[in-house]
Amino acid sequence: MGKKNFKKKLGASLVERKKNLQEARKELAKSSSAKTKMQYSADQILDKYELAQKFCQRALEMEPDNIRALETAGSLLLELGDTEAAKQCFGRAVEVNPDTGHSKYMYLGQLFEGAEAIQFFQKGIELMVKEREAQSAQELAAACGGEEKISGRDISTAYCSLAEIYMTDCCDEPNAESECETAINKAIEADGENPEAYQLKASFYLSKENKQEALSMIKKSASLWLPHYQAVDQDKITDEESDPVEVVPLSYDARVTTAKILIEVEEFETAVTVLEGLLDENEDDPQIWYMIGWANYLQGEDYKSNARFYLKKCKEVYVKTKYEDEGLLKHTEELLAELGPDWTRTPVAVSEAAV
Fold first, then answer.
1. Per-position DSSP letters for 48-117, written without gaps between them
2. Distance between CA atoms of 261 and 258, rounded to whole angstroms?
3. In a domain? residue 258
4. Main-chain dihedrals φ then ψ at residue 209, nearest 5 degrees
5. 0.90 cut: is pTM over it?
6. Among 56, 60, 228, 231, which residue has the least CB neighbours within 10 Å?
C-alpha cells in the first residue's frame, strides 16, 4: 500500500479538541470586540503554559500518581514542545490506571509510531467505546466530573487516526491494506457524517488507483461541510454562535489534503473553492497559491492566464516567507517558463501608456 502524506497531530486529545475550539472561539470573540484591548503575545501565552506546568509539577510532587495531574502535565508539556517528558507522564498514567480513561492512550498513539502507535490507538478506542456504552446505558453524562460525553464523532476520528498509521508508518505490513480499510469503515459506521472518514476512504481508493470510487468519496466528504462553510462565508447564514469545528470540521492541513485529492480526481472547481477558503485564512502559504495555479494549468488553454497569475504569486510569497520546498519552487518555475509571458495584457498597457 502506497505511503500517503498524512501527519499525526499532536496536542489536544480527540475528546478535548472540540471543547478547546469552543473556548478558543469565545476568546477570539472577546478580543475582536475591542481592537484597542491588549493582545496576548506568543511569549505571554507560552508563559501561561509554563506557569500551569509548574502547578502540575507541584501537584505531582505531592501526589506522584495523581492521574489528573499526570495527564494535564502531559498535555501542557506537548504544548511546550517537550514530547519526551509528555511521553513519560502519559506512560506513567497508563501504568497507574490502565483500564479506564482513553485520553492518555490517544495522546500516546499520536506520540509514537508504527506498531506501538497502533496498540495505543486500539486500546484508546476500546476504552472510548466502553465509556460511551456506559454513558448511554446508565445516563452518566452528568456525573463525569466535567468531562464531555464521548460522541460518535470522537470514536470515528479515533478510527481515522488508526487508519492513518496503516497508510503511513505501517504501510508495508502484510495486512496494512485490510486493516486500514477496516478502520475507515468503522470510522464511517461510528459517524456517517464525518468528512474526515470519507476523505480517508478517497485516499485509500487512490492508493489502489480506483479513481472513480475516490471521486465519489471525496465528493461525499466535501458535501458534508463545504456548502455550509460557503453559506457562512457569504453571510447567507448567521452563524455567530456555531462551534468552529462544526462550520469547518477539518483542520487546515486536512483541507489542503482535500484539495490535493480533488485535483487528482479532476474536480478542479471544487478544489479551487477549498483552496480559496484556505487563502482567506493564510495568504502567506506558497503551496496554496501553487495548487490554485496548478489546478488552473491542468484545465488547459483558457485557464493559462489564471495559472500564470497564481504561480507568479506563489513565487513571490515563497521568497517573502523564506519557504523551504525546493520541489515546489522548481515545478513553479518550470510551469511559468512553459506558460511564458502574458502577452495578452502587454498591448493594453502600451496603449494606455501612449494615451
1. HHHHHHHHHHHHHHH-TT-HHHHHHHHHHHHHTT-HHHHHHHHHHHHHH-TTS-SHHHHHHHHHS-HHHH
2. 5
3. no
4. 60, 30
5. no
6. 231
Q: Give Rg (Cα) of the chain.
A: 23
Instruction: Supply angle C-alpha 184, 185, 187, rounded to 5.
Output: 65
Exposure on the CB side of residue 64, measured as CA atoms within 13 A: 3
- 126/174 Cα distance (integer angstroms): 23
Expressed in angstroms, the distance from the first to the final Cα of the chain is 63
Q: Kindly state whether residue 64 falls inside one of the protein's structural domains.
A: yes
What is the domain-level CATH number for residue 11? 1.25.40.10
User: For residue 312, how far is the Cα from the chain centroid?
Assistant: 27
Output the DSSP codes for 161-213.
HHHHHHHTTTTTSTTHHHHHHHHHHHHHHH-TT-HHHHHHHHHHHHHTT-HHH
In a structure prediction context, what are the per-residue pLDDT tens digits for the chain, which is 355 residues long? Answer: 544 433 344 444 444 544 454 454 445 444 444 433 345 555 555 467 777 778 888 888 888 899 898 999 899 888 888 999 999 999 999 999 999 999 999 999 999 999 999 999 999 999 999 988 888 766 544 555 555 688 999 999 999 999 999 999 999 999 999 999 999 999 999 999 999 999 999 999 999 999 999 999 999 999 999 999 988 887 777 655 555 556 889 999 999 999 999 999 999 999 999 999 999 999 999 999 999 999 999 999 999 999 999 999 999 999 999 999 999 999 999 999 999 987 655 433 333 433 3
What are the φ and ψ backbone dihedral angles of 231, each rounded to 5 degrees? -65, -40
Q: What is the total count of domains within the chain?
A: 1
Closest of 239, 235, 203, 238 to residue 218, by C-alpha? 203
Within 10 Å of residue 22's Cβ, how many Cβ atoms? 15
The label of the residue with cell 488553454 reads 301
Give, as one character, the DSSP assignment of residue 236: S
Note whether residue 105 is domain-resident.
Answer: yes
Domain extent for 159: 1-15+48-191
Residue 31 lies in a domain: no
